[in-house]
Amino acid sequence: TDHGLSDRELEFTLDVANGMTDKEIARQVGLAHDSVKKRIYNAMFKLGVNRRAALVAEAMRKGIITPK
Question: What is the pTM (predicted TM-score) of this model?
Answer without folding.
Answer: 0.91
